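Researcher: Watch the backbone:
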Amino acid sequence: MFIFASMLGFEMKAVYREVYGPPEVLELKEIEKPVPMDNEILMKVHAASVNRADSHGMRGTPFMARIILGGLRKPKTKILGYDFAGQVESVGKDVTEFKQGDEVFGTNKVAGGFAEYLCVLEDLMLIKPPNVSFEDAASVPGAGVTALQCLQKYGEMQSGEDVLINGASGGVGTLAVQIAKDKGATVTGVCSTSNLDMVRSLGADEVIDYTKENFTQSEQRYDLIVDVVAKSSFSDCKPILNSNGRYVTTEFSPGLAIKAKTARGDKKFLPMLASPEKDDLIYLKDLLESGKLKPVIDQRYSLDKVPDAIRYLEEGHVKGKLIINM
């Protein structure tokens, strides 16, 4: 049956893995093209983006990633890629929001975007604005939701507050700077020397070069510190927080959550774990469509180069996002 499907063109290329491990476990394979269930969209993927979740899911580390993503010994998710954009090829009979030919983008809790085709539920998908490219649309969902929830859901940011973003030149950071400005904050971005001008161009009011200055020893005080690279700590940042200030980090573990709950004083320690929400995606779509959110794309790769893209991501020097084009 598989051979017959292949002869009819019902195969697709995908980056596939059977085990946890380094990028070498990822293989470009020909596998059967998926068939949508009644509540799913079959999507032809035009572009996907690379996220930290892909690295964690690939390696199965930290161990909590295996609990969240599924598969304690072997990964349940064989194809990584959580964010993508493309065109609807067909829909299941219960799908109401989309039709064949629609250009869409979104995210999928069970990944699957590093492939030519993908079946996905409609609940975390949106129509792509016509003035937004597939690459830009694919770059936003995961990183954008993380940035927005750091600032709003966890950080409870208010217009007029002083906000510092550590890691302002990365995938989440570049979006966080722009979202914070859209919501009326005064933004300081922390990045390396080579990225200062880029972070300024995104709207940051001030920039700090971490290779020359330790921001935790600054005389400036902040209402909210968002560490999207998990390189600082609450204890280091506490002295530069205003009264009732908040410190949000993308580093999350049960131990940190307990530590945060038991922290004393008027300054809050908030380890965050992003969870995609439709309302957040709609907000990001509106920003994209209006031109207020401009994704930064560092490099583009073909599907067979996904291992190289993840290697580069893990080096920790990506400016903005990495894109996989099909």
Observations:
- Residues 1-8 have pLDDT under 50 and may be disordered.
